[in-house]
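Self-study notes.
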Amino acid sequence: MTDSKINSTVLGYPRIGPRRELKHALEAYWDGRSTLPDLLLTGEQLRVATWQRLAALGITALPSNTFSFYDHVLDTAILLDAVPDRYRALGGPHDTHFAAPYYAMAPYFAMARGTDDLAPLRMTKWFDTNYHYIVPEIGPATAFKLADDKPIAEVREARALGLRTRPVLLGPVTFLLLSQPTPGSPARFTPLSRLEDVLDVYADLLAALRAEGVDWVQLDEPALVADRTGDELAAVRLAYHRLGGLADRPRLLVASYFGELADALPALAETPIEGIAIDLVRGRLPDAAALAGKTVLAGVVSGRDVWRTDLRRTLGLLRRVRDVAGEVVVSTSCPLLHVPYDLAAETDLEPALRDRLAFAEEKVAEVVELADELARTTGTAGPGTITAEPSRVASEPGSGRPGRSSRSPYPIRAAAQSQHLRLPALPVTTIGSFPQTGELRAARAAVAGGRMDQEQYERRIEAEIDRVIRLQERLGLDVLVHGEPERNDMVQYFAEQLDGFATPRYGWVQSYGSRCTRPPILHDTVSRPAPITVRWARYAQSLTSKPVKGMLTGPVTIVAWSFVRDDLPLRDVVGQVAEAIREEVTDLEAAGISVIQVDEPALRELMPLRRSAQAEYLDWAVGAYRHATSGAGDRTQIHTHLCYSETAEVLAAIDALDADVTTVESARSGARLIAEPAIKEFGRGLGPGVYDIHSPRVPGTAEVADLLATALRVLPADRVWVNPDCGLKTRTYPQIEAALSNVVSAARRTRAALG
């Protein structure tokens, strides 16, 4: 933003680096292969490259403080000194991110990842995205203060380059709504009750930023696009009357995204803030009265997909915004954290598909082009210089809407499976993947580069499967997995073998911390030309007399973790994928696989943020899953898995999936799901996770036994399974051998206690 007006901006930008430079730097630092100064230098280089590139592309208002070494919500907790006491002894302000003091890296990464002695904070999904944030703990005694100067330091860092920036902060209301009470807090305590104390710190920070010459500050409040209570809307008014009424502050821009503000918009509009960012990709243009006199950041270029913007239609929308706003600024609909960097690197994509795509770099160019065109035109009509977008031809979709299918009632299936599988009480299994070693990644790269033939590669995969099966037998697991050594990613692997998908080579997107994924692009009709997993499942089962799970990704998750065509209703696209997975389930069963896991970790993630749209979504999403799995016979045990989302919110839907066994994340969240009253009524097998795999720490046998005891106080023993929170691909073999050994020991100890 300039002193007088703004023209074009983005709400945020990817931060992992075009070639995942941050990932590599973090993992080298964690593994002891590099030093803290090395890590800090990589962060500085990424920030500088982002600002300079955005400026070169023509963005007139550069955001800062959007970079993070792990997670921006965790950064905010550090900023406010909301650090639980158990982490404080690990370090102090002597470690630095910048030249100015910044909070210690040791407690920062301990809160994110844990240590040998400390579990990390809980992690869950960022609204309806596949990004995960660290959940802060706030209690009645949390002593807030301005403990970090990261936003100020980045302003200075950019200024040294001759660039002025707009610091981006997580808004105080969203920060508190996303937090959870500190363990031991009074039953009725909510973090939002600490709002006024948090506002004191924000006021100090705003004054400090103004003293640095900052003109505008962006406060992100995406929580306001979900349903909010009257008390929560009152908190919005309190927050922004208080901050807007400060005598010495920058101008304030409150940014919403992932939907429309609805009731929160008039609450914001009546406060003295100068600007509001609205998502016009997922929301409608509000009435003129709500925007009068405000600077409006019009989020017209989608930050959630990879499709080109219809520039002519969007220019017309921007003219309508200009008619009702005090000032209009062209922007992305949300931060570009959720899309890859640059389409120019994707030379392998078909030209016809490339013409339809825009990654972060191209979306910035669209923002600038729209802003320039809007500045050249007046009125609400006129062709301008933007040409019409090429028409998009939709492929024949087929019906894509499978009818609701069902299997025999659960008691009948459970009896058949018990007789067939003959499992012990508290059966121990894992979620599916085993560590992806450097050798496996090198083998896949060698095949792709023509340095290894397919026969050599398949022998390498067989050897890894043999290793995984022998390890599980030695440790004493009851239901085994083949370890998925042939898979790069649980969605990408299927996308590469289904028609209708394309996979970018460099299309990395941050999921959490150093974890990145390459979402496939679902651009055409989906079908399964050949079996996908049967060859490896059959081989694994031939190595052991114990049951080996066939491992599939569910239709909702495949779609949720892909960039999906926007010319067909989402439920129809999911229906096409469900039919392909149904065919795979049938072939696995015919190959002698008696346990088949169809994972749906994104079931909650894809759910609309507004309650009014959730029932319809859950109806067709559950229907798609049941269609995909209902072809299996009674004695074939169907498992599903959900992780790192608010599982309790969709417990009824999980029950409606009708899977025989559901495994869920539980260890990292402190068994929160088990405390839900409705869990007592869950009538099928349930595996509350007892090992947090997103931390390098190894849980002890007693710790696992305590988690099992918690589950058994609520659930009958004949329906409890023992498993990690999620797949093991991000861990090392020494870590998982130690952890799984303790998990098996705890299960055996608990069985003995049960008699």
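Second protein, same conventions, sequence then structure:
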Amino acid sequence: MSTFWKIVFGSCLGSILAGILFIFLGTGIIGALSAGSEKKAIKSNSVLSINITPATIIPEKTNNTDAPRFTLNNAAVIGLNDLVKILETAKNDPDIKGIKLEMEGLMAGQATTSVLRRAMEDFRSSGKFIVSYGVVYTQKDYFLASVADRIFIHPNGMFDFRGYGSQITFFKNMLDKLDIKVQVFYAGQFKSATEPFRYDKMSEPNRLQVRAYLNGLYEVFLESISKSRNISTEDLRKYADGLMIRNSEDALKYHLVDAKAYKDEFLEDIRARIGASEKDKVNYVSLGDYYEAKVKDKREKGTKDKIAVIYAEGTINMGKKSTGEIGGDAYAAMIRKIRQDDHIKAIVLRVNSGGGSSLASEDIWRELQLAKQAGKKIVVSMGDVAASGGYYISTPADTIFAEPNTITGSIGVFAVVPGLHNAMKNKLGITFDTVRTGRYSTGFSLNYDFNADEQKYFQENVDHIYDNFLGVVADGRKMSKESIHAIAQGRVWTGTKAKEIGLVDKMGGLEDAITCASRMAGITDYKIKEFPVSKEPIQQFIEQLMGSDDEDNSSVARKMVRSELGSLYPYFEQLRALQGMSGLQMRMPYMIEIR
């Protein structure tokens, strides 16, 4: 009986505490929503202020991220597509006179940076100014800032200009020390996703492909800067190879920047450009405020005809999650609803994914195929990465667009099974024994090494999925399976090279893809409907705090780990990904880190 009353008392106490928490959170939520709903008026003679820091997150779609983003004003994490819309709107807004660009360490991908750079070039074509300031310019910072009319650097600032390099982290020696034997099965000599677990350095095929795509990305970098700064690519190469630019003085000497200046001098330049006196307050408008005032909820209005834009970014996994990653179940159901909507005439799939689960990729591919058979026109727009499973889900497309520095291809399959037998025995003193009803009835256990027959079974499955992958690509690209195999085998390509070999149709961005889709569908008056439907930051925060069916309950814990590990977090993620690799995988070769 005493146990009964303990349970009752505990339940009552829990309910009371939950109620208090609900009231506390509810009050905060109402206040936050009220604050977030107020739109700031854009005054005349304003300057759009863009501050880029290492904490700046640029998802493909606004709020489509599970990164930490809860703020008291319910601020949105503005996606790339809306950033472009902001710049397009500001270009034609008489109240906006120019852009103040401050760089402190851009972390976006290569293609994302190119899209932003192109949008800024378009903004500048209106005759409005862009001025940039930095204390330390990284190469990616400078790639974006080089479009500016005038580039300032702190008098004692640093300037990083040394060419591109790619680093791969290898865990083989660590796993050996832990007595963990990783059993690897793969198809394609370039499918190097498993190399960090079985080698301590790059294989020669992997080194070959890394050198090829790295040179391609570097060409885009040099040619873009050469055009903006009127410096030959040969001279730019010479500066980088000789490590000739190390500080602000060198950057000014070789005309990569226009002036050394302190922050107040930089701000004074802006004041002069808009004709403001020393006593006048300059109206700086943040991206968030401008988005709320001029872009948010101002989508295209038209007839009942629609084009669905599906943002597929992040790792492809089985499940229902659709924020920050591509849940196979969630996206398959989403595409199914789109297929059944007669008002949607075309689908534009925006892919920024290095792949993941082969089964989840297959489920998404299947629904896209059914949508195509139902008469929907399908166009793919590739972002930073559309590789492996990310390329697999692109194959139903009638037309594929990519950026020159998109990373794509990686047509291959692998499986990784960590063997824990020796680690458990030698490190922890734990052993296993078993009784079987058949020769393989305890097979594929992590507690035993695979025998020759089990290894053959796994490899045959990998080869079968790879053969199917080749067939899917061959069918989608209208090429022979043999010709696809010659350019597949897990190899990674830049967008430019992918177009040459037939994996991509055209160079261009998301807007080009939408225009193409409308033309193919034969519609001129239409509106855009974006998927998945993003939740407001505060709503997602509460769901992550309380737990929900479609959110990863470990995401809050991961955010805490991310904040503690800082720059070391990507290595943690690589090891965590190994744990989550259940089933056969269509993933990028490894985490691409370009320095």
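Instructor comment on the second fold: Residues 46-161+245-295 form a domain with the 2-enoyl-CoA Hydratase; Chain A, domain 1 fold (CATH 3.90.226.10).
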